Amino acid sequence: MAGADEAHLRRVSAGGQPLATLVPVTQTETLTPTQAPERERTDEGDHDRFAHYAKKDAIARAYVTGEVIVALCGKKWVPTRDPSRYPICPTCKELKEAGWTLR
């Protein structure tokens, strides 16, 4: 392909404005697949139906950063919902009444 056809293949435009310039490929590059970083495993299931006790500063940080926090009962989760809409976790409530605290 020479002349006008070759120029057409190398420059793509719309309405007279250049969008991209195509460059012929001279060699191929082999890409190595990468694996996404593993996320910390969080608990799933019926525990999500409860509000849990956790440190206030950890909750505030988790709302901003999306990091996993640990409740008094040991559940690991990322808080995303309004806890006032859910009943308090019975295990958290029991541990708090027994005098347990978060460190």
Question: Outline of this structure?
Answer:
This protein has helices at 4-10, 56-65, 90-97, and strands at residues 11-14, 17-21, 69-70, 76-77.
For the termini, the CA-CA separation is 73 Å
The DSSP helix count reads: 3
User: Order of strands across the biggest sheet?
Assistant: 1-2
Rg, alpha carbons:
28 Å
Sheet with the most strands, sense and barrel status: 2 strands, antiparallel
Shape: elongated
**How many β-strand stretches?**
4
Instruction: Extract low-pLDDT stretches.
Output: none
Q: Which percent range fits the helix content?
A: 10-25%
Strand/helix succession? HEEHEEH
| Structural class estimated from helices and strands | alpha+beta
List the helices and strands and how they pair.
Blueprint lengths: L3 H7 E4 L2 E5 L34 H10 L3 E2 L5 E2 L12 H8 L6
Antiparallel strand pairs: 1-2, 3-4
How would you describe what is shown here?
- This protein is α+β, with helices and mostly antiparallel strands.
- The protein has a domain at 46-97.
- The protein is built from 3 helices and 4 strands, in the order αββαββα.
- It has helices at 4-10, 56-65, 90-97, and strands spanning 11-14, 17-21, 69-70, 76-77.
- The strands form 2 sheets. A two-stranded antiparallel ribbon has the order 1-2. A two-stranded antiparallel sheet has the order 3-4.
